[in-house]
Amino acid sequence: MGVAVGRFDPRGFFLFSPKKRLRASWSYKKRVIPRSVLCGSMLFALGLISLFIGQIAADLELSRLRGRWQSKRGRNEPIDIWKSKYSDLYYGCSDRGPHFRSALRESKSNGYLLIATSGGLNQQRTGITDAVVVARILNATLVVPELDHHSFWKDDSDFANIFDVDWFISSLSKDVTIVKRIPDKVMRSMEKPPYTMRPPRKSTPEYYLYQVLPILLRRRAVQLTKFDYRLANRLDDELQKLRCRVNYHALRFTRPIQVLGQIMFPQISGKSPLLKATTDKLNVLKRWPCKANIVDFVVLRFEPDMLAFSGCYYGGGEKERYELGEIRKRWATLPDLRPEDERSRGKCPLTPHEVGLMLRALGFENDTYMYIASGDIYGGEQTLQLLKDLFPNFYTKEMLAGDDLKPFLPFSSRLAAIDYIVCDESDVFVTNNNGNMAKMLAGRRCTGYF
Ligand SMILES: *[C@@H]1O[C@H](CO)[C@@H](O)[C@H](O)[C@H]1NC(C)=O
Ligand SMILES: *[C@@H]1O[C@H](CO)[C@@H](O)[C@H](O)[C@H]1NC(C)=O
């Protein structure tokens, strides 16, 4: 689902670390549009076009990287809109407005909202984000969402195994009251178990106010199931900002996941006591070959379920048609797609080989280091070989973390969290499929630090 490209300096310092502070949201205040802002916007527009047309999200860093190379070769200086004198026209999306009222206390709320999320880690992340906003719309007290243990991804992890639950509760305390469970006293006073319902996709705030609130008031607790993409995209600004606060600030991975993710990403300067203490125990760093002065790396996803879902054909003959066809049967509601049509409409994720060709065409040379963020690659080694031929230096979390990864192996969501961290930290992120993870990361990389 995603390809990320990054580069790091083996001395331990991020070459582009300032970007994280300089990045801002896409919007800027309308006034006279100076030329350089216009150029910046056009760059953005080009980026967006590449995202939608080619299903390839190559973020701005790529052009910056190319700019660097070009300047090394003595051509034009790179354009860095974040450092331009107009960068203060860009602003972040996460800060609450001065008139956004405080959360209602538990005792004053309209009842308890229970949420059961659905799908893989990043899909569940959208569910959690929207759960907080729905609780806000309903003036409900949110119970920490329950993760999906039955999806295709089969993972028994609970919220607290993946996300820092105390941080989640405390960082959102001004916006929504969140509790770990319904207090026993309240449970005992309830006549019936919580009412369970499944809202339609992308329901409006009115839906929640007219269909869910009355039941919540009557029963004191409502459980919303299969909760992913259940809230409309269009919301008022303050609720959108709340979404940003949840997704980009309140959802923080637990420490063991963060530590491993950070360590896999070789940017340790020896300055962080937390990381230093842990690196002494883990020897991941030794496994990164740091022979070159500057190293690049790339991340790619290519899982069977994702391929089956796409309805495309990837050149694997009858065997592939049969195998992907079988997987497709898991989703009863998938439309009957003609693979040729999907491909001609540009809807098919790139194969690893195609990703390799694309990156080479963009100027990444064969000494680029790649990080492959993926569950099972369909076709395994054989599929990867063509990519490996183009980029011999490539790594997966299994290769990098070795034994340190063992405790995480039974938990697909924790593994996905590690990939998320590495992709998030990388300087360039490219995706071969615009799935949940790619969308989450694209948003986070644009606005996450505000
Ligand atoms: C939520 O609480 C606020 C402040 O008390 C109130 O103005 C608003 O109408 C309430 N909304 C609902 C749905 O209860
Ligand atoms: C990269 O390509 C060059 C020239 O084609 C070749 O000499 C070199 O061995 C390749 N490097 C790797 C790591 O394969």
TrEMBL record:
Is Transmembrane among this UniProt entry's keywords?
yes
Question: Which one of the record's GO molecular function terms can you name?
Answer: glycosyltransferase activity
Q: Which InterPro entries match?
A: FucosylTrfase_pln, GDP-Fuc_O-FucTrfase
One Pfam match, given by its short name, reads: O-FucT
Bilayer-spanning residue ranges: 37-58
Q: Which CDD domains match?
A: O-FucT_plant
Q: Which GO terms describe its biological process?
A: fucose metabolic process
Superkingdom assignment: Eukaryota
Keywords, alphabetical: Carbohydrate metabolism, Fucose metabolism, Glycosyltransferase, Membrane, Transferase, Transmembrane, Transmembrane helix
Recorded family membership: Belongs to the glycosyltransferase GT106 family.
Q: Which protein are we looking at?
A: O-fucosyltransferase family protein
Provide the species name: Cocos nucifera (Coconut palm)
